[in-house]
Amino acid sequence: xxxxxxxxxxxxxxxxxxxxxxxxxxxxxxxxxxxxxxxxxxxxxxxxxxxxxxxxxxxxxxxxxxxxxxxxxxxxxxxxxxxxxxxxxxxxxxxxxxxxxxxxxxxxxxxxxxxxxxxxxxxxxxxxxxxxxxxxxxxxxxxxxxxxxxxxxxxxxxxxxxxxxxxxxxxxxxxxxxxxxxxxxxxxxxxx
Length: 192
What we know:
Elements: E1 2-10, H1 15-26, E2 29-37, E3 43-51, H2 56-64, E4 68-73, E5 79-90, H3 96-104, E6 109-113, E7 117-124, H4 126-140, E8 141-146, E9 150-153, H5 160-164, H6 181-188
Antiparallel strand pairs: 1-3, 1-4, 2-3, 5-7, 5-8, 5-9, 6-7
């Protein structure tokens, strides 16, 4: 089963290597990994999709890493998930209009027009991106890249008092401890 984990980590050299090594040592395959800046200075948000039956132990071990501020398995939580795909397909002039109409119906945009190719961009849920890619396969995919899943809990931030009742303990001086936030509220069921 695929699990989606979201982590807040310090933005330091080597953190990504330590996190990935933890999964490698356990023999877990990382299906998707995205890392980017967060709302907190010096803190990055990491989203991992991991093929494993049970990630509870590795989540606990991630929390022990000094640079990892907070980890949450959001697989069964209400989340907003998105993925972006860029897909270059063979597109002879005679079939371009139909191909553009077909892909536009799925919400894709044309981002490049070549002599015999089109490049489409789609940002959607991972399942819809997969369906879009499968739709284009018979057309002749020349190149493709997918960003990997990013995920965020649904809901609105709550007061700091409600956040303190959350399940993830924050470390002293932890910038994530001041977020209050949807993470802790969602874990308590008090979010949106």
